[in-house]
Amino acid sequence: MRSDASRNRAAILEAARVLIAGPGELKLSAVAKQAGVGQGTLYRHFTTRDELVAALYAEEIDELVAEARRLLEQHEPLAALERWLARLAAYAQVKRGVIDAVDASAWAEISAETHTKLGQALGALLTAGAAAGVLREDVDPRDVILLSWFLAHVKPEEWDDRVPRLLEVLLAGLRSAR
């Protein structure tokens, strides 16, 4: 991909990330305007809204996976998990927009591809924490994914007050009793 095409794609995805977290339906014309590109440019990269949303979702998951590795390299396991869960919470706001933007069949296809990646990243964090003796050994990635689904149900107006408290409760439950 040429550098200008790569920049345009990145700008389109960033515009979609901003707009999808806001109120209302995600409109491709608004994405093009926000990205500073013409509609033709947008359609050369993404022919449908579902295609754009799928690309945004895949990019978010890839960033979460990479973030898990970076955090484990830079922090102790418990701190790495805490920071990763905060990043997951930020991602949940985009995910809520993704779910609202696509129909149920498209969502099933989009999410099926990414659960394995997300589970592997979370597994690395949990394994490192268990090995260090700071996280429970009997919890697997799916347990945490299921527990973190509360993020999809927190209303925007209560997000800032409720989510930090709920993440702390989740982390407390994951800590080792040792």
TrEMBL record:
Known DNA-binding region: 27-46
Pfam families: TetR_C_43 (PF21597), TetR_N (PF00440)
Domain HTH tetR-type: 6-64
Ranges annotated as spanning the membrane: none
Keywords linked to the UniProt accession: DNA-binding, Transcription, Transcription regulation
DNA-binding found in the keyword field: yes
Keyword Endoplasmic reticulum among record annotations: no
Protein's name according to its UniProt entry: TetR/AcrR family transcriptional regulator
Organism taxonomic ancestry: Bacteria, Bacillati, Actinomycetota, Actinomycetes, Propionibacteriales
